[in-house]
Amino acid sequence: MVPRSATARVSGRVIGIYTASARGELPRAVEAVAALAGVGLAGDRYAMGVGTWSDWPGTGRAVTLIATEVLDALPVSCRLSAAEARRNLLTRGVDLNALVGREFRIGGVRLLGQRLCEPCRHLEALTRPGVAAQLLGRGGLRADVLASGLIRCGDALEILPLPAA
Predict the structure, then answer these.
(1) What's the CA angle centered on 106, arms 37 and 82, to 5 degrees?
(2) Largest Cα–Cα separation, the chain
(3) pTM value?
(4) Which of 4, 20, 80, 95 could be disulfide-bonded to 25 (CB atoms 3.0-4.6 Å)?
């Protein structure tokens, strides 16, 4: 277990965890998942290299996050369940956009926010028209796993302090 730093700031919680083992499969809710450094979430399509975008190299494919506040604010015509949003972690109480370029910890797992998880036509094709436009700029966060560990529903999300200059 990673000790909590006196300077880390709790900024929300994980309230849902979702993985899918195959491309196009609706993610299923789990209570806990092992996060593997440099790989992703155990049992998830991207950790196994079989996700829709797995053929394109780059950072930010290990873990995706979305805020429940964003899903709750979608108009009825574009409403998505957490699973339909196709993100791995559902959070509450954190500004995910502010985590781009920042290290943070969930449970014993250290992550790095790489970039926004902007919606795409693929998401819209799997759900309903208009979803991509509604999620633009607030579709979540793409992150990499820096240190392995277990993530559980209810874990706090702690923003780690910036390195000293």
Answers:
(1) 100
(2) 47
(3) 0.86
(4) 20
Residue in this structure with the two tokens 């702690």, named with its chain if needed: 158
pLDDT digits (tens, 9 = 90+) for 61-93: 899 999 999 999 999 988 998 999 989 999 999
> Nearest to residue 17, comparing CAs of 35, 33, 1, 36?
33
Mind listing the pLDDT tens digit for each residue in 43-66? 998 877 666 555 567 778 899 999
Query: From CA 44, how far away is CA 35, in angstroms rounded?
Result: 10
Rounded to 5°, angle at Cα 103 from 101 and 109: 140
